[in-house]
Amino acid sequence: MIVNYIFASHLGKRRSINEDSVNVFNLDDGLLSIVCDGLGGNRAGDVASKTAVETIYNHFLQNPEVDNLIKMNAALTAAHKILLEKGRESAQYKGMATTAVVVFIAGNAVYWGHIGDSRIYFLTENKLRQITKDHSLVQKMVDNGLITSKQAEKHPHRNIIVKALGEENDCSPDCDYFYLSEDQQFKLLLCTDGLCGVLSFNEIFKLLSHGENLEEISQHIFRLVEDLGSPDNFSYVIINNI
């Protein structure tokens, strides 16, 4: 399967430091995409996100023979441990943490991993699906029937997350995989909450449905998020197949 991709990271209009990190790596056994959002309320969020991207990449690079789902979980766990170690060794880095979404495409299999409130969306056959489920306070409230999904979008506590790499509490990531059929057309979007917290589900659907030119789609995303105020850093990877 031949895939195309584009990625970008933007400061936004209200931030002085970009604490997001994003990259895509062409490995011998597949395509690895990583998006991380260093937590703004913690120290050294930019260092946390960069460290996580580097650690996840190195783990995939150094373990090509390991089962990909096991490798996904292990890579995220390794990033978590390194962030904890850095925080314990230096007061400068104490408490740093980051979200992460990771996709590894190997043949017709799509492996994904997730922790925090960054998201993965999957578009195919003119239908959009959110693959990940936020590790957030408002998602817990939705799960418990206290608020609706619509109310969660504008809830004042929607930015409070309950899991992140580098946090002392539970850091177990969500990891899974699915298969693509031989001729299945698709798009994948990995993004930080600076994008999905500003754009609605329907807006994301319309943007991803805007043809197959990833450069144009990326430009439309940038312009719309900026037009809506871009209150946070926003970063993303878009992937499609030919």
Order of SSEs, N→C?
EEEHHEEEEHHEEHHHE
**Low confidence ranges:** none
Q: What's the CATH topology name?
A: Phosphatase 2c, domain 1
**What proportion of the residues form beta strands (DSSP E)?**
25-35%
Overall outline: globular
The major beta sheet can be summarized as:
5 strands, antiparallel
- CATH class, named Alpha Beta
Describe this structure in words.
With 242 residues, the chain is α+β, with helices and mostly antiparallel strands. It has a single domain, classed as PPM-type phosphatase domain (Phosphatase 2c, domain 1), CATH 3.60.40.10. A five-stranded antiparallel β-sheet has the order 1-10-9-6-7. Strands 2-3-4-5-8 form a five-stranded antiparallel β-sheet, covered by helices on one side.
